[in-house]
């Protein structure tokens, strides 16, 4: 999201206003400190004038992909099983959408 926002030369405040969320929340999302609901991601995509797929479509090397998966696993270890299931369902939905 940060990458696309910067290409669009938008501030976090402008994106937040256009997506009807707080600029603080934009910062949290961009830093990976908060996971927005899919509905929020859709509003962000509309505010950035991109297809929702572009938010999730970024190229990573095999090593980067493994690192991201490892980091996700580390973060999920501390979560309740219910929360892990929610993240899993979101990942499945995103994967279906990107096909």
Q: State the helix count.
A: 7
Poorly predicted sequence stretches spanning 5 or more consecutive residues: none
Q: Radius of gyration from the CA trace?
A: 14 Å
- For the report, how would you describe the main beta sheet? none
Helices and strands, in order, run as HHHHHHH
- Average predicted confidence as pLDDT: 87
Structure characterization notes:
The protein is globular, with a radius of gyration of 14 Å. The protein has seven helices and no strands. Helix 2 packs across helix 4. The protein has 99 residues and is mostly helical. The mean pLDDT is 87.
Descriptive tags:
99 residues; mainly alpha; 0% strand
Could you outline the blueprint of secondary structure elements for this entry?
Elements: H1 2-7, H2 12-19, H3 23-30, H4 38-48, H5 52-56, H6 62-77, H7 81-98
Helix pairs in contact: 2-3, 2-4
Question: Would you kindly provide a brief summary of this structure?
Answer:
This protein has 99 residues and is mainly α.
């Amino acid at each position: 999201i940060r990458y696309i926002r910067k290409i669009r030369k938008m501030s976090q405040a402008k994106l937040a206003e256009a997506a009807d969320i707080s600029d603080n929340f934009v910062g949290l999302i961009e830093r990976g400190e908060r996971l927005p609901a899919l509905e929020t991601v859709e509003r962000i995509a509309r505010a950035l004038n991109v297809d929702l797929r572009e938010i999730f479509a970024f190229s990573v090397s095999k090593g980067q992909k493994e690192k991201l998966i490892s980091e996700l696993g580390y973060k999920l270890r501390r979560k309740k099983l219910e929360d892990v299931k929610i993240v899993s369902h979101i990942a499945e939905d995103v994967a279906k959408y990107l096909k």
